[in-house]
# Entry
Amino acid sequence: MRAAVVSKLEGPEAIEVVDIPEPAPYPGGVVIDVHAAGVAFPDVLMTRGLYQMKPAMPYVVGCEIAGVVRAAPEGAHVAPGDRVVALTLLGNAMAEVAVAPVDMVFTLPDNISLQSGAGVLFNDLTVHFCLRNRGRLAAGETVLVHGAAGGIGTSTLRMAQALGAGRVIAVVSTEEKAEVARANGATDVVLTDGWLAAVKELTGGRGVDIVLDPVGGDRFTDSIRSLASGGRLLVVGFTAGEIPTVKVNRLLLKNVEVVGAAWGEWAMSHPGYLQEQWAEVEPLLANGKILPPEPVLYTLDHAAEAVAALDKRTATGKVVVTLR
# Structure
């Protein structure tokens, strides 16, 4: 089968499309004919050996797929021919065939294409975890998201109101990205230049209840300043590259919180949690309350470019690699 493979840790440019043997089935594994694979920022870090979890070399790029079940264990909740989305753990996604643990395979609603489905799990379940578990989103609260035109950002815009937010403010760097944010459901959009003053004006000086930040970098302190009394700043990642620090006296000023939100760690340490998430998210996708992503598509031959788009921060929305 054809697959996108990393054999040397030199960044996305080192990804090669090669022929390798199909993966061997294992007990409790579902064999899936892959139609599309999602791309996420950890894929960038893995190509340089910088992610906290490191697959054995060489490895197949990517951790989330959409496709059709070829074979499933007896008694599984999926069967051959089912359209599914799945998490493949450390790599093993951007290949024509993949095997995923049965408890990480989920049936895909009929109204969502396989290409869109490949962009659902990683980002949408991350955002669901952030807002529900770590952010304790209450009905009517205001959510602000940085990097709002990226994968996590657009997922937040698509999902926040369905999960109870009353207002969703997008922070973006360009007018082009502002259009992407509006198309994905932002109620308000501000540019990064002067964003804090703009948010204060939008909220009448009150501030926001939740900031979801996958960017980090030099805007972190202003994110704390943007919070209303009792607000929560959710730390999701550091696509800007710089890991910021917190002067904790700032947390006392308005009883605010800085909260780590590592969905992958939580899912691994809480068996059954992924199924709980899907039980809430899947009906919202099926009935249209959460719109599916409209991903930017790359063919398998351009897998390196797809991952590099996240590395260079030129991607808007979810990036997906198609295999069929």
Remarks:
- The chain has two domains: 2-119+293-322, 123-264.
- The chain has a mean pLDDT of 95.
- The domain at 123-264 is CATH 3.40.50.720 (Rossmann fold).
